[in-house]
Amino acid sequence: MAVLAIGVSHVTQHSIMERVVTTERAMLYGQPIVSNGQVLYPLYNRILFPAIFESATKVLPTVKDADIFVALRFVSFALSFLLLFSAIEVRAAASGTNATATCLVIGISFIATLVRHPMPSSSDILDLLIMFYVFLNIMEKRVGVAFLLACLTAINRESGAFAGVFYFLLRAGTERPARLVAVSAALTVVPYLLALGVRRAIYQHEFASAGLGQWWVGLQFNLVDMLVDISRFNPANDFGLLLAFLALPSVMLWDRTSLPNGIRTRIILACAAIFLITMQFGIAREIRVFIPCVALLIAATVANFTAPAPRHAGVA
Is 172 helix (H, G, I), strand (E, B) or coil? Predict the structure, then answer.
């Protein structure tokens, strides 16, 4: 999968590699990005990979920046897929799932995004990896670990806030209301505020006070685009890609027979909620903004719901 990602990115970005490297640095230092003569600012933080890249260029000053960039991108994809596939393999017996089939589903879902958006980004695979572990830890009763990982997403995207949405829908009716609200709020508010804080720290004087999030992209705009895609459906349009991106993980979850009573319904509701929130604040046609939905479906497919809660679980 890492080789595929690098192959596609090489074909699509080789001729503009200098601009790609410049964009990475612009994101790290809060500088404007120029595209087709238009000045843009990043819609997400995405500073984790650029920070590693910039550090590597200083450690290896004699190596070309483009070579370091490609090497690090390959490592990020290879390591991320390794961690994902390893977590699935370890839980295969307990969850009663086919580890090979589940790993292939992740691969196919990833490939589907390359049909329309053939520029694989390290921030995307990191988002999938971290959110997979966030949801996995919540389901396996390690909420403290999930909270820390959700906070880590602040240096990549705002996805960590979905942890609270999932926790609330997963635990509603099964624990004290006060605890449910407190933990859900902590898992939602803290990661999101951290993400906004990181963005404000980087782009100190470039955003108005209301310009910290994805407020300018509304549900109505996205729905119009989706309706156009549905009315002109073909496997290569955005609606088709969205189906390909979500359908197979959904089938894998539905096929799992070892889920506790009611958990499947809760997970479906949580995925729907995350989907609708993403429709409101994300750019629906970027498909990849729905990565947390895929991460949730895969995590639920392999999670060990019988895992005991740790004695010391932080905020848990």
Answer: coil
